């Protein structure tokens, strides 16, 4: 004999999944007889198990799969969810589903330098400069240069042997080399009979956008999911002169 699969199954995210995006779309394989999907979702496992919270009712579309979202979840939470398949024309009219769970990440990632491919390749160096704009460009800017690497850039011998302490994940970091003496020549243009040059300013900076092409994946809302603080890991050359270091958001020091 054949048994008709009437209960929801094959959840996505999978049961006990971790680092699930805050804007996840929940999906599952629908029960065969479902006319409505009742979704119970909460951080309270008991409330979902006992069905003491109001469900979200989702009309069945008639296909093999169903979905709900995107959601707007909080960071660092475990969510429990259950799908009850309902058909008022059947007896019984409700098929209760299993309770599944997933966990959201503890923090948002502003930029993951492990994602810039092989740090020794020209492709990776071009990719990071497409996102992080340093001072070596044809505008009045600063004498800064940025790369992604697992070791110190050989073009800056004073950094030889000075590498980040790798507090997070693997071993790649963004290296930011700078010189604030105002003598760095950014570029020279020659139009006979005159030659023009531009010197760097007495500061060095890099910048990245939060929207548009080649922007930071974190987006513009850094408070999403209940985020309250920015954590920045950095490591400098102990032989440097003392200089002020700060972060600018929207053009203002913070």
Summed up:
This is Fibronectin type-III domain-containing protein. The protein is mainly beta and 254 residues long.
What is the fold's blueprint, element by element?
Blueprint: E1 9-12, E2 26-29, E3 36-42, H1 45-50, E4 56-59, E5 65-68, E6 78-86, E7 94-95, E8 99-103, H2 122-131, E9 144-149, E10 173-178, E11 185-191, E12 194-199, E13 248-249, E14 252-253
List keywords for this structure.
mainly beta; three-stranded antiparallel sheet; Ig-like_fold; single chain; Fibronectin type-III domain-containing protein; 2 helices; five-stranded antiparallel sheet; 254 residues; Immunoglobulin-like
Q: What does the model show?
A:
The structure is a single chain. The chain folds into 2 domains: 9-103, Immunoglobulin-like; 108-254, no CATH class. It contains 2 helices and 14 strands. It has helices at residues 45-50, 122-131; strands spanning 9-12, 26-29, 36-42, 56-59, 65-68, 78-86, 94-95, 99-103, 144-149, 173-178, 185-191, 194-199, 248-249, 252-253. The strands form 5 sheets. Strands 3, 4, 6, 7 and 8 form a 5-stranded antiparallel beta sheet that branches. A 3-stranded antiparallel beta sheet has the order 1-2-5, with no helix packed on it. A two-stranded antiparallel sheet has the order 9-10. The model is unreliable at 138-142 and 152-169 (pLDDT under 50).
């Amino acid at each position: 004999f054949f048994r008709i699969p009437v209960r929801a199954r094959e959840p996505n995210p999978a049961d006990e999944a971790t680092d699930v995006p805050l804007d996840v779309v929940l999906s599952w394989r629908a029960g065969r007889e479902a006319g409505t999907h009742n979704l119970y979702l909460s951080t309270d496992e008991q409330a979902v198990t006992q069905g003491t919270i109001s469900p979200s009712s989702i009309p069945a579309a008639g296909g093999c799969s169903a979905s709900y979202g995107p959601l707007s979840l909080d960071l660092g939470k475990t969510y429990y969810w259950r799908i009850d398949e309902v058909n008022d024309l059947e007896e019984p009219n409700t098929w209760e589903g299993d309770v599944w769970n997933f966990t959201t990440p503890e923090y948002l990632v502003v930029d993951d330098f492990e994602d810039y491919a092989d740090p020794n390749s020209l492709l990776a160096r071009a990719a990071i400069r497409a996102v992080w704009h340093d001072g070596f460009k044809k505008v009045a800017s600063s004498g800064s240069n940025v790369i992604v690497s697992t070791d110190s850039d050989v073009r800056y011998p004073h950094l030889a042997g000075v590498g980040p302490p790798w507090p997070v994940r693997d071993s790649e970091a963004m290296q930011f080399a700078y010189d604030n003496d105002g003598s760095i020549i950014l570029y020279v243009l020659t139009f006979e009979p005159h030659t023009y040059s531009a010197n760097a300013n007495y500061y060095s900076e890099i910048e990245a956008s939060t929207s548009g092409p080649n922007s930071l994946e974190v987006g513009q809302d850094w408070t999403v999911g209940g985020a309250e603080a920015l954590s920045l890991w950095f490591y400098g050359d102990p032989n440097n002169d003392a200089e002020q270091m700060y972060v600018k958001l929207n053009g203002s020091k913070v």
